[in-house]
Amino acid sequence: MAINWEILGKRGEDNALLVTVDTGQSQETLLFDCGEACLSDVRISALQSIEHLFFSHFHMDHVSGFDTFFRHNYNRPNGSVHVWGPPGTIDVIGHRFQGFSWNLHHDQPGEWLVHELSETELAKSRFLTREAFAKNEALPPQARESNRPDLTSKSFTLKSILLPHGDISSVGYLLKESERKNIDRAALQSIGLRPGEWLQTLTDETIGDHIKLTVDDRDFDLGQLRKDLLKTRDGESLAYLTDFRVERGSAKWNELVKWLKGTGTLVCECQYRNTDQILAERNGHMTTGLVGQLAKEAGVQELILQHLSRRYDEVEWTEMLTEVQEEFPRASLPAN
């Protein structure tokens, strides 16, 4: 299993995060934000494989590329398209759907489920292509609990947190792979079995424990073999935070540090240098020092800086990285 990710868009321009959770047997593709031109180099087939689109908030630089995504998915025939975001998401996306004149839609497939996150509740509405997205069908809301994921699939769980960005909320997302099960080679050797195609049966969760398995002319109970030979460990994790500001030592800072604790990869905005703290406070963004301190206190494994302000040039972006590394050495800039 693996979490593969790519930051879309260039430094100083709109950014998005494309993520694929690969179990080795299946893949699930997720998109975080959708800025202008971020999807230009993404294959149409890849766009059409995205099951969930997560918005942090709806400032223009995070939503301007939505029409490209919508155009290639509005009548998806095989499964629903899910959109997630902060309070107001259902109204915002509903208006985006209605920004077009519809024809030839009556027999078209397509179901869009729009999820709206507040501090205490997850609201959801259904929109159908064949109805020209005219009806907002409210579905039963769910209570949100801090220790419970907002989304659970066969290969991952996802939690969210609402963070302050000026006078609105920006949603942060934390993706965790399901537990990994690997072959214990030492245990395999101690039992006296040789590796082979039979190991695929051992790791195939669609096959029940009650099955009898013959290996090297010896009969085994599959459930017992799994207990003896499979080691379970935590999967990878990735967090996406953008367009927010929390002050070190505040209640929200402490909540965020706890929420992020031990995350593998943190993809985080880094809008301003320490010397531009006044601008950062005024516009609701983090500075280099704060980003580095957050990663350090949360104990993440690596920090990737994105959504850099265009007020700086290439040289200054490199200097910003150095400022972050003074607090958290395992920080880096994306390749592009």
List the helices and strands and how they pair.
Layout: E1 2-8, E2 16-22, E3 27-32, H1 44-47, E4 50-54, H2 60-63, H3 66-73, E5 81-85, H4 89-97, E6 111-117, E7 121-128, E8 137-143, E9 151-152, E10 156-165, E11 168-177, E12 180-183, H5 185-191, H6 198-203, E13 212-215, E14 218-221, H7 222-229, E15 230-233, E16 237-241, H8 251-260, E17 265-269, H9 277-283, H10 288-298, E18 302-306, H11 314-327, E19 331-332
Parallel strand pairs: 3-4, 4-5, 5-6, 16-17, 17-18, 18-19
Antiparallel strand pairs: 1-2, 2-3, 6-7, 7-8, 9-10, 10-11, 11-16, 12-15, 13-14
Q: Treating each run of at least 4 consecutive H or I residues as one helix, how many helices? A: 11
Structural class: alpha/beta
Distance between the termini: 26 Å
Residue-averaged pLDDT: 94
CATH level 1 class label of the largest domain: Alpha Beta
CATH topology of the largest domain: Metallo-beta-lactamase, Chain A
Any idea how many domains?
3
Helix content: 25-40%
Which range does the strand content fall in?
A: 25-35%
